[in-house]
Amino acid sequence: MLHKQTINLNGFVMGEIYSLKIMEIAAKAPVAGQLKNPDAQVKRVSRVCGSSVEVSVKVREGIVREYGQETNCCVLGQASASVLAANIVGSAVEEIYALRDQMEAMLKQGGEPPGGKWDELKHLQPVREYGARHASTMLAFNAAVECFEQIRAKQT
User: For residues 26 and 46, what is the distance between their CA atoms, to the nearest angstrom?
Assistant: First the structure.
């Protein structure tokens, strides 16, 4: 009989939540750094675990043209931030809003994971069973959307 490997962290048996694939995704994060003169910059912190993500963006005509980030996250936050950073440039702002909503639905309502260039996010599906880990997983998405909100506020 095959058994899933588990990692025991301070008494928590995490099962697939910290899979080798998640660790690989987290490890291949693009080089960190903030943009000079961004259109918006936001830092988000998870109150549960202390993970933090700071992102900066430049947006032109509704398209993300440049993206910077600095992360100090658990592996889940790092993995989601890694996928976002690798794919956000060239994406429409509205696509990122939809991505954030789809990730939230995947975690909280059992929704389908994103596909296409966001396909690696499917490996975060096991996080849905660990509500306390949702906040760190969503940090980068929420920070990016908050940047877009700042930009919209400046335009009105």
Answer: 17
